[in-house]
Amino acid sequence: MKIAASIPWSLIVLAGLVHTARADESSPQQNPLPPTTLSPGVAPATTDAPPPPVAPVESTPPNAPLPLGARSTPTATGGPGDPASTAAGPGGFAITSHDKKSEIRFRALVQADGRFWFDETQRVSTDTFLIRRAQPSLEGRLPYGISFLVNPDFGGGTTVLQDAFLGLQLAEGLKFRFGKYRPTFGLERLQPTSNLSFVEFGLPTLLTPNRDVGAMVYGDLFDRVFGYAAGLYNGTPDNGSTDLDSDREKEFVGRAYFRPFEPVKDKIGRLFLGGATTFGRVYGTPTNPAFATPTSTPAYKTPGQLTDFSYIAAATGVTPDYSNTVVANGPHNRYGAYLYYALGPFSLLGEYYVSNQEVGRAGKGNAVISNAAYQAQATIVLFGADASYDFVHVETPFEPAAGHFGAVELAARAGHLAVDEAAFPNFASPTASVRGATEETFGINWYLSDNAKFVVNWDHTEFQGGAKTAPELAAGHREAENIILARAQVVY
């Protein structure tokens, strides 16, 4: 009975202790009065006891290196006298630590396009407005050479993770990257999407990988005169992206380049010369031909994004097998060379690529299909900026009241794609796929500021082969594509 009688009192005492502890923990937030303010009518408590000793704190200069045994990463305190800085501008919204060693940056790219065909009689297409790209991105820089980027894309009503990688820089000539990103093969492919001179990529970019998952080492040497990159990836088809590998084989991607004018670039311009290669082996199945992921065959597309070449695949409703579906069945190698030159308002870009893919089909054997493409681009800025591969900086943003109208750039492009004759008719249909395409494009780019621009392209593409309708069969080739491409872009 004594034990039973003491239990309620024990619970009451325990509850009081818990309540006191919680009040002590939360009182700074719950007390509506400042710490030095007393409630009316309450006298301050007095004590003659001396204050407890305080251990001295050794201060460390903000930029002093951590000792080798330290495991903590330096961060900004954010307190008075040591705040983290914030900035907003054309490069995004950034939060930077006081010691400048850490930074996180929020950026966004939105491209609203329009496609309008004309002079078409055999292949009528639907004019449309669309969101080509909508990419909010998060990038960061951390101590010890660490960086990262996460870049999803919601363009076209889909959700795709375009980039997600970790970077590590040990020196200017020794950097590493791990994750999903653009393999270092195509020059136009590697150009910042916000700084493309045209609405759509040129024909040679169809032969290059878009995104792949892997790891690479790269860097610039000899005061940036020479650069290199070498990486190992899952492997991706022409103009394709992958997140998972379709077999156990891997693909090597490498490039080397020169900037011979780097020491005197301000006087005679910026010249970039390079070469690149990829090589690996790919083996597909009828349900995953390994030309694209997960189950579709690769497709080369027109500037209007209509398919003009694809390998034979099982018809809809028919079970795929090795006799009705072409699969990758051996080496896939690419070779390329390119250049870029810019002097003041003028720029020139040239590319040439070859893609060799061994394919197979039951009853038809194997064949190595070798496709090639090249292009030349030229731009000239009429006023307001200089030409640039990475970023066109507008010197006088649009402000009519001050007589400023941004920058205006004219652009022209010519290119050709040649498909191997060995692809027909066993591996590609001569009525569904073209043997080649020749493109001419003219455009005007109006940069209102570093953040906004408008683009209009006139594009004319003629095809070799691919005739399907009676008039096309009579002419011997697919009807030419004539299209106006327009874009309104905001980048931040």
Provide an overview of this structure.
The protein has a single domain (85-491), classed as Porin (Beta Barrel), CATH 2.40.160. The chain is built from four helices and 20 strands. Strand 14 (327-343) and strand 15 form a beta hairpin. It has a 16-stranded antiparallel β-barrel. Strands 12-13 form a two-stranded antiparallel sheet. With 492 residues, it is mainly beta.
Which key features would you list for this structure?
single chain, 492 residues, mainly beta, Porin, 4 helices, 9% helix
Sum this structure up briefly.
This protein is mainly beta and 492 residues long. Helices cover 9% and strands 44% of the residues. It has helices at residues 2-30, 187-190, 265-268, 470-475, and strands at 85-89, 92-96, 103-117, 128-142, 146-153, 160-171, 174-181, 212-221, 226-233, 251-258, 270-283, 299-301, 307-310, 327-343, 346-361, 365-383, 407-418, 436-447, 452-464, 481-491.
Lay out the secondary structure:
Elements: H1 2-30, E1 85-89, E2 92-96, E3 103-117, E4 128-142, E5 146-153, E6 160-171, E7 174-181, H2 187-190, E8 212-221, E9 226-233, E10 251-258, H3 265-268, E11 270-283, E12 299-301, E13 307-310, E14 327-343, E15 346-361, E16 365-383, E17 407-418, E18 436-447, E19 452-464, H4 470-475, E20 481-491
Antiparallel strand pairs: 1-2, 2-3, 3-4, 3-20, 4-5, 5-6, 6-7, 7-8, 8-9, 9-10, 10-11, 11-14, 12-13, 14-15, 15-16, 16-17, 17-18, 18-19, 19-20
